Amino acid sequence: MIGALNGIRVLDLSRILAGPICTQLMGDYGAEIIKVERPGAGDDTRKWGPPYIVDADGNDTTESAFYLSANRNKRSVAIDIAAPAGQALIRRLLPKCDVLIENFKVGALARYGLGYDDLKYEFPGLVYCSITGFGQTGPYAGRAGYDYLAQGMGGIMSVTGEPDGEPIKVGVGIADIMTGMHSAVAVLAALRHRDATGEGQHIDLALLDSQISWLAYHAVEYLNTGKNPDRLGNAHASVVPYGVFPTGDGHVILAAGNDGQFRLFCETADRPELGLDPRFTTNPLRIKNRAALKPILDDIFTARTTDDWITLLEVAGVPCGPINTLDRVFADPQVVSRGMAINMDHPLSGSGKVALAANPAKLTGTPLTYRRPPPTLGQHTEEVLAEMLDLTGDELASLRKTGAIE
What we know:
- By secondary structure, the protein is an alpha/beta fold.
- It has 17 helices and 13 strands.
- The chain has helices at residues 18-28, 65-68, 84-93, 116-119, 147-153, 174-197, 207-213, 217-225, 259-268, 272-276, 283-288, 290-301, 306-316, 326-331, 333-337, 381-389, 393-402; strands at residues 9-13, 32-37, 52-54, 60-64, 74-78, 99-102, 127-132, 201-206, 242-246, 251-255, 320-321, 341-345, 353-357.
């Protein structure tokens, strides 16, 4: 079947995570992604290991797991955009592309004549998406931006961690990932406008802005009360009990989202009187008295194992679950049934395959496809330039000799 974005071609000048996440998402939906990389170096994350793909002799290759996580469904073209001949190649490719994605520092591409203002009149239908740490405007626009900085400056670390502990970042590069997702949505919106009017536009997305946007209810709480949210560890600011509790052999999550579920939990745990305790009968009361309720629940949960609790509470219809390590995640029958791990052929892998996490979307009419494994550096340079620009072997050899391509 044809993907929903079949016919859309993206020139991807991004690297690291936010931009590659955006273009991988579009590629999964059927867009053609041309990943432009610096000759001899490529995307920085290729070297962000270990772990790396292991070859047939058991040796590490140059492809890291980090790089593999965000670069499937792309072709890699090694072009030196610092060279005039490389800049000319980009300009020759643009008429055949719908979108340009980049995450250089503000003004960096303008030095090569490839900034939005340099291109917008020549390519009026181009959707040009710039991803930076702090955006194209404002006092921080010129700063380099990183996920960790965005998490700290954007507030998420202030609400993550134990109340008496240090602020903690999220365990994945969530500011980068969410910026990539916002970028993909913004690009699709701009493409719809382009299709209706013929007009392209410049999309300005910042890690800090994206981070702040998904503070969600925490942001709204502060903006309307002027009060900074507390750091509550695994507890929930607005629902009690909703958190992690110790069992006889590990931990379990209890998510009693309403008063009825709390009473049902108490009955299932053979403590019906707890559900009638005047300190705990309603959620506002449980929030007020969470310090009194927590040790009572800890004592209740330590009386049984994690598996016993999950079995007991699932049968009763009380929301609960384990805290899985990744080996248990990918062995879980629900995860297996949903196909959340995929295998793709890869030329450098000793097994001939590389395992990746799947895209979660399921579409009935235009299902997602996994057509290309994450490419090696410059793997498709000749293929793409010959196909899109009709360059001959001699022309390619000449460009390679000058260092404009690899």
